[in-house]
Specification:
- The chain has 7 helices and 2 strands.
- The chain is mainly alpha-helical.
- A two-stranded antiparallel ribbon has the order 1-2.
- Helix 3 (33-45) packs across helix 6 (96-119).
- The two termini are 21 Å apart.
- The model has no long low-confidence stretch (mean pLDDT 87).
Amino acid sequence: VGHDTAHNGITHDRTTDIMIGIVVGPLLTGISTSWWKRSHNAHHVVTNSVEYDPDIQHMPVFAITDNLFSKGGTYSKYHDRFFHFDAAAKFLISYQHYLFYPIMAFARWNLYVQSWLLLLDFNKVVDMRAVEHH
């Protein structure tokens, strides 16, 4: 439901789908609909681009390509920062196949943090900011 409201796919009326999304997103799950839309829409535009797609940028915890190792990491144009391939990343990525499920047990907390970082960044446009952070 959250995915469909973010794509205005339930009623096809932006305002109505935003309101449904706010109930499903922030109120029921605690995750900002605006944060999800920003990230997910970027994913749709540049699907699986290591430099641009935020849905596959999980350094230093997970790596989706071995090209990251030879370059010492990767620059994320979405996050506007370099993700380093350092000793900690080398350890985590070496065991990512074992660590995936334990990390996923706590990964939801990152979604809360990312939601609040967006809502508190007043340089970025956020639909219904006042409603989302209450």
